[in-house]
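Forwarding these from the shared drive since the link keeps breaking.
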Amino acid sequence: MLSVALTGNVAAGKSTVLALLERWGAAVIDADALAREAVARGTPALAAILARFGADLALADGSLDRAKLRRRVLGDRAQREALNALVHPEVRRVEAARLAEARARGVEIVVSDIPLLFEVANPADWDLVVLVDAPEPIRRRRLMDSRGYTAAEADEVIRAQLPSALKRAKSHIVIDNDGTLEALEQRARALWETLRSEAARRRAAPAR
């Protein structure tokens, strides 16, 4: 089985690439979905978050006010790191179980969507790391146009992540998303063919 980590800074286009890969046949593990599971009502992680960051983060139904939590930690690196330390060990545990299940089912290509791959995980745990990237001015504009962020909010979100230049140097494959949706789809298709070829190569390799 070929395990692929797909990452990218905010508004780079990672979710679009992920959707295309899933449409073409990849099995997908969504780290954001796992993170939501990790902090669902009644979980130890949610209890730890409320104790650490404030009981007012609980909504009326007992679930986590994720938007309020994001605003609370966004501009504070120490707070973000404390939050990651509470949530991501559980996310990684569940993700490892999902990968093992996929391997047992004979799945050929699994793509794990991990926005904070370089911040909170070990890239060496995957066979390939794919980065979707776009210039910062384009990502800022996308945040403002499609998500309604102010310029200051967009800048704060961008600053909260590692610079993409550092991630490019540590990735096996980089997909640049600085043009049209059609151009991105063409690049994603080329990526898919590369992943299929690598999966076939591994399948044909003699067992050691």
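-- next protein --
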Amino acid sequence: MPDKNKTSKNIIIPALELITALGIILFWIYFFMVENCDPNNSGIYLAFERAFPLADIGWLVPALTIGAIGLIKKQWFGAVFSLAGGGTLIFLALLDVSFNVFNGIYIKSPAYGIMNGSINLWSFLFGISLIVYISRNSKIS
């Protein structure tokens, strides 16, 4: 008989991958409808942010989605794409943190700083969690 506790644990990471992928899509909808049109945003900020949609939508969202599906189906590609998604989350989070610190984005306003900081922290920690989870639970040979 399958262990229900282990089965429910095995769905958490793929679910978080899918939620993260959806969050990324929703962020870009918000960005292009609100942030991109705000005349108070600097050209440097907008140029920086406009560089990310291809990486996020063209690689990260598919990697997280394919990874989640593969983990749910217990297929080898789940681990591979989850690792790729985790590494991408870490890289993009560190790049974003670097830009935000050097350009005062976190101190633009308390709400803006909390929002950006939370997104960066989630991306970094979840990226590490994906890599640790895969390294402990997958048998890629």
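The CA atoms of residues 23 and 61 lie 9 Å apart. The chain has a mean pLDDT of 92.

- D.
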